[in-house]
């Protein structure tokens, strides 16, 4: 789960990291009011959307008076920011953050990520930060420093000091930079984040360190331990299909093919997608029903895909370890009896209670194409899709 910049800053504040004074606004009037409240004579108005790179697409405005703050906010509210280049999804601005303008002496980059290769938290830092960090990582890869944290002992003060030193922090700031890096790690660790990024981390005019921008991402599977973080979720920033699924206790990942996939577990999902591709098919999604899925959840998953007009075929592939095939079958029958699908459905069941599951499917009399192995499931799906396209034309525009 992603959160907004202002929320990340508030969290980091709680760990002792300094950020500019700021206030959130839901309207241009409120933005101007925030500026007055913050005081001073120069502000930055920042679109709050779940993505970086706002500076390059007009999401960050430098304002010299309250009127300019009002105008910048007016322009931002309701606008769409496309930060990932053409073709990428855009995000609508519903909130803006107004901050005191900070005079920058130097911009740096600090990031903590979950590094899947080393299975460790990795600190990534660069003495030059700001908007060009992506380019720098390509043009001068050696200027980016990386440091692995051993989970058994956590980040050590010497590591933080070394990072601060390599960032070119002078002796006057070495202590506070070390503290800041340790604090960022503590935030990462204690809040079950998968990413904490401060970019830019700056030396302000007064010579002190300040986190000028920040992003945080959290492990969805650990959110139950942090209700105060789960509360920060902003559905307006998420893929509507994924949100709907998540609200139903399902995990949905959308793709651009025309084969609907309901599976259990990410591993089986990956294998299914790969095999489909190998046979010339392309998935429209993967919808993970998780473990111990009751019939209701399975039926919900099918209903969710029933509204997708791009599907040519639906493949339900479950290898039941914690799941029960009879429950899966009941869910399939429940959903299809309520509202028949207009596309072919292939069901492959294996594992727990598979015999009961098969019986339930055949007793239902529904036109379900059955398969027992993964290979069979995929080839039958591909064939059914082809037949569907031959008789109706392609569904995917
Ligand atoms: P991003 O483009 O989404 O990463 O948004 P940022 O918050 O990082 O803002 C983009 C850039 O605007 C930063 O890298 C800074 O160079 C600049 N910027 C943002 N806030 C301030 C500020 O208060 N003072 C100054 N001088 N520059 C700022
Ligand atoms: Mn930034």
Detailed description of the structure:
Strands 7, 8, 9, 10, 11 and 12 form a 6-stranded antiparallel sheet that branches. The protein has a 6-stranded mixed sheet with strand order 13-15-14-16-17-18, sandwiched between helices. A 4-stranded antiparallel sheet has the order 1-6-2-3, with helices on one face. The protein is built from 13 helices and 18 strands. 38% of the residues lie in helices and 25% in strands. The radius of gyration is 25 Å and the shape is elongated. The protein has 3 domains: 21-100, Dna Ligase, domain 1; 104-230, ATP-grasp fold, B domain (D-amino Acid Aminotransferase, Chain A, domain 1); 240-392, Rossmann fold (3-Layer(aba) Sandwich), CATH 3.40.50.261. α5 packs across α6 (171-190). β16, α11 (325-338) and β17 (345-351) form a beta-alpha-beta unit. By secondary structure, the chain is of the alpha+beta class. The protein binds guanosine-5'-diphosphate and manganese (II) ion (MN).
Which key phrases capture this entry?
alpha+beta, Dna Ligase, domain 1, 3 domains, single chain, 6-stranded antiparallel beta sheet, Rossmann fold, binds guanosine-5'-diphosphate, D-amino Acid Aminotransferase, Chain A, domain 1, binds manganese (II) ion, 397 residues, 6-stranded mixed beta sheet
Would you summarize the structure shown here?
The protein is α+β, with helices and mostly antiparallel strands and 397 residues long. It has 13 helices and 18 strands.
